[in-house]
């Protein structure tokens, strides 16, 4: 086994270990607080509703009383720091999702630690995890570029070999095409979310570009509730990992190709000035 392949395997094992360890710690630190807030929130709504119903049990509720009830319940929902649609945020799977969004710098924003311990741990976790993840993506991306470059050299004629700088441009063009196809294939993975196909493609682009707006989150941030959802969760995770490697490889190839093009321009300018 070559040293570079062994290094890639070791880096991936380190990232996986870091993710699973971080997910466990976030789950321990944040889940009790999450469930406590949800319980308190439901209790507040129940008390407000029961009080109003008890007050108006024997008579019909006037319109202004009903409007006030709705407004009070709405205020409780807005002021509550937790979200009903993501009450399973800090399950282990949700914590794993959050950990991955931190070290990949996607940062969807649909969930965030709310305890002092969770936020403190998040700082150190990100400081260590982001460089480790970026290094792993870069090494894997460079390896893809190297393999593609070797492939183009292998199928090239002698004349093309003399113009070896074109290889980097071919690698960039090939990776751009692969990334585009991969992006549009990803849209089909999210049709079960009741999203349109374009919504799925949009989500994949926002995730793979690490913009991570958080305006669209699969399963609304809740944990998988069935074997099928768990399988989808795994497939989507693998898709994002492969996609991030492709993006890293594409960025690296673009930089290499631009250096080649700039070098050609410099040579041409030098020749013109010489003449």
Automatic annotation (TrEMBL):
Q: Does the keyword Zinc apply?
A: no
UniProtKB keywords: Ion channel, Ion transport, Membrane, Potassium, Potassium channel, Potassium transport, Transmembrane, Transmembrane helix, Transport
Family annotation (Pfam families): Ion_trans_2
The cross-references to InterPro entries, in alphabetical order and at most eight, read: 2pore_dom_K_chnl, 2pore_dom_K_chnl_TASK, K_chnl_dom
Question: What is the superkingdom listed in this entry's lineage?
Answer: Eukaryota
Subcellular localization(s) per the UniProt record: Membrane
Q: Where are the transmembrane segments?
A: 7-29, 116-137, 169-191, 238-261
In the bilayer, the protein is annotated as:
Multi-pass membrane protein
Q: Identify the residues that the record assigns to the Potassium channel domain, covering every copy.
A: 87-144, 179-258
Q: Which family does it belong to?
A: Belongs to the two pore domain potassium channel (TC 1.A.1.8) family.
- Its protein name is Potassium channel domain-containing protein
Organism encoding this protein: Porites lobata
Q: Which taxonomic lineage is given here?
A: Eukaryota, Metazoa, Cnidaria, Anthozoa, Hexacorallia
């Amino acid at each position: 086994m070559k040293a570079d392949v062994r290094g890639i395997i070791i880096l991936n094992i380190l990232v996986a270990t870091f993710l699973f360890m971080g997910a466990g710690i976030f789950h321990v630190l944040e889940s009790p607080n999450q469930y406590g807030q949800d319980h308190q929130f439901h209790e507040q709504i129940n008390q407000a509703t029961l009080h109003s119903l008890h007050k108006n049990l024997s008579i019909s509720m006037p319109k202004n009383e009903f409007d006030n009830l709705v407004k009070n319940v709405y205020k409780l929902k807005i002021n509550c720091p937790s979200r009903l649609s993501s009450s399973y945020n800090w399950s282990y799977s949700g914590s794993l999702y959050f950990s991955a969004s931190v070290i990949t710098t996607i940062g969807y924003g649909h969930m965030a630690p709310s305890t002092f311990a969770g936020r403190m741990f998040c700082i150190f976790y990100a400081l260590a995890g982001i460089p480790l993840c970026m290094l792993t993506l870069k090494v894997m991306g460079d390896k893809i570029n190297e393999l593609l470059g070797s492939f183009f050299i292998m199928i090239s004629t002698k004349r093309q070999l003399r113009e070896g700088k074109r290889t980097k441009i071919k690698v960039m063009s090939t990776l751009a095409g692969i990334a585009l196809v991969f992006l549009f294939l990803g849209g089909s993975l999210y049709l079960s979310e009741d999203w349109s196909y374009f919504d799925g493609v949009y989500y994949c682009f926002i995730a793979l570009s690490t913009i991570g707006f958080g305006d669209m989150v699969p399963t609304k941030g809740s944990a998988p509730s069935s074997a099928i959802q768990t399988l989808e969760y795994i497939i989507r995770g693998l898709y994002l990992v492969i996609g991030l490697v492709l993006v890293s490889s594409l960025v690296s190839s673009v930089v290499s190709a631009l250096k080649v093009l700039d070098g050609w321009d410099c040579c041409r300018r030098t020749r013109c000035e010489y003449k």
